């Protein structure tokens, strides 16, 4: 692992610890277990970084993966598909090496049973959820209360799927009454069109624009969550 590459992380940790002296203040570092691109972070880099983070007193690491160039929020292997989580095998490799620091893993979890199994199998101490919470902000509560057994479908095509969730976060931020429902094909089609327009607008301003940014869209079919 390049020391330079991780230096900023440790400088930030040092500064947090300097300013917040309460030992009950929890610090998590979310990091990539794999990046799927040349010169990117490898599982071995990740392992070494986790060991250094434990030394630095980090409470838990949250393992994820990929970059804007090398997308990873999809299954690369059948073995992980069966277990929902894209990065579960990395968590399994890293967890036994850490004595105090807890391991979480984020990416792919959609059902309560998938989440429970990941913890029960000992692969991870906890799980993180991203995109489903854009659609259903109360999903964790609903699962814990036994009202639902998992997240609804998301038909926004990969790799745009992250931006689709960004649109939902934007809707939540605007305090819309509805959040777009990506399990509705018509609503997804409206989003794809809005996203194409937004991308063209950005490219006209900045030709080398990256894929970040979220198409604004007023929901027509969705969840009446925000009442
Ligand atoms: C709108 C949006 C923005 C995100 N921004 C970040 C980010 O800034 N840093 C990061 O590490 N991950 C970011 N992620 C990735 C998520 O934290 C998560 O790792 C990813 O969505 C996979 O989990 P999921 O399958 O449960 O969605 C973002 C995801 C979404 C949907």
Automatic annotation (TrEMBL):
Belongs to the NADH:flavin oxidoreductase/NADH oxidase family. The keyword Nucleotide-binding does not apply. Keywords: Flavoprotein, FMN, Oxidoreductase. Gene3D superfamilies: Aldolase class I. The keyword 4Fe-4S does not apply. PANTHER family: BINDING OXIDOREDUCTASE, PUTATIVE (AFU_ORTHOLOGUE AFUA_2G08260)-RELATED, NADH:FLAVIN OXIDOREDUCTASE_NADH OXIDASE N-TERMINAL DOMAIN-CONTAINING PROTEIN. This is NADH:flavin oxidoreductase/NADH oxidase N-terminal domain-containing protein. GO terms for molecular function: oxidoreductase activity. The lineage of its organism: Eukaryota, Fungi, Dikarya, Ascomycota, Pezizomycotina. It comes from the Eukaryota. InterPro entries: Aldolase_TIM, NADH_flavin_oxidoreductase.
